[in-house]
Amino acid sequence: MKIIGIVGWKNTGKTFFASEIIKKLRSQNYRVASIKHAHHEFDIDHPNTDSYIHRISGSSQVIISSAKRWAKINEIESQNEKKLDELISELSETDIVLVEGYKNENHPKIEVINEKEKNHLYKNIKNVIGIISDHDLDTDLKQFKKNEIDKIVNFILNEI
Question: Rounded mean pLDDT of the chain?
Fold first, then answer.
């Protein structure tokens, strides 16, 4: 399976680009999985749903299932956060894994840069192979404009 990351500072459009890349890959019949890193506590179930009630009641594992999808929620309490490779090993039957975040891991990454941002990640983290920005930057890395989704996807398919 191929792995590509989307990194950048907060509010640079990482999720937008991740979703556009996923859509384009799916339209080309690739099986795509995604992993999103959160820097805080989060819920995928919401108040007044059965899965939420089970979890807040103390269930350390909750599986919710239907004919269309299933999800497993693990409360990790005192354990360390899972490493990216551990999360990837949980995936099955996928061609490409798109990782949003996890900027310090070793997979290849594309950085999304906001025109106002001056502290570019590619200068300090490893494995950045491309940049999405509407401003040309002084680097040898492959650069894409924000409206070049097709070129970005072709680059991903050819480079990883």
Answer: 89
Q: Could you tell me if residue 52 is inside a domain?
A: no
Would 56 be classed as within a structural domain? no
Asked if residue 66 is part of any domain, the answer here is no
Kindly give the pairing relationship between strand 2-7 and strand 32-36.
unpaired
Angle formed by the axes of helices 149-159 and 14-27, nearest 10° = 70
Nearest CA among 129, 127, 136 for reference residue 156: 129
The DSSP result for 93-111, as a single string, is S-SEEEEES-TTSSS-EEE
pTM of the model: 0.85
Phi, psi of 101 (to 5 degrees): 95, -150
Residue 131: closest CA among 16, 8, 11, 9: 8
Instruction: Check which CATH number belongs to the domain holding 15 and give it.
Output: 3.40.50.300
* Total number of domains constituting the chain: 1
Each residue of 37-76: pLDDT tens digit?
Answer: 877 666 778 888 888 888 888 888 888 888 988 888 888 7
Whether residue 54 is contained in a domain is answered as: no
How much is the pLDDT for 41?
66
Q: Which of 117, 112, 92, 93 is nearest to 101 (CA)?
A: 112
* Res 109 pLDDT > 90: yes
